[in-house]
Amino acid sequence: MINILLILQIQKSFNTIAIKYFIYLIIYCKHAIIPLKIFNLFYYNVILSFNSLVIIIFLLLQYLLFFILFFYFFSYIFFYIQLINFLLLKNIKINIINMQ
């Protein structure tokens, strides 16, 4: 019984860490757009000779790359968290069967 309670506590701590980390990164992602805009000001001297359509496409590609990397990274984190939860629940079922 103590083993099951310990596993449930570990699973709960994994879930709270994942939720806190995800909320922190949503907030970071919202605030990261402002530094990206400041960073893009350095490119305006380089691509001043191009027309505005090229500049707009360049900025959209940069934002697209940022969000693709963001979601790609977090899909792996949440996959491993779900895998850990599944293994912990499987361990609880094995312990309950052994206790009976």
Tell me what you see in this structure:
The protein has two helices and no strands. With about 100 residues, the chain is an all-alpha fold. The protein has one domain (about 1-100). Helix 1 (about 1-40) packs antiparallel against helix 2. It is rod-shaped, with a radius of gyration of 22 Å. The model has no long low-confidence stretch (mean pLDDT about 65).
* Overall morphology: rod-shaped
- The H/E string reads HH
DSSP summary: helix tally:
2
How far apart are the termini? 11 Å
Mean pLDDT across the residues is: 63
Q: What is the total number of structural domains? A: 1
Instruction: Return Rg in Å.
Output: 22 Å
Query: Percentage of helical residues?
Result: over 70%
Q: What is the count of β-strands?
A: 0
Write a brief caption for the model.
The chain crosses the membrane at residues 6-29, 41-61, 67-89. By secondary structure, the protein is mainly α.
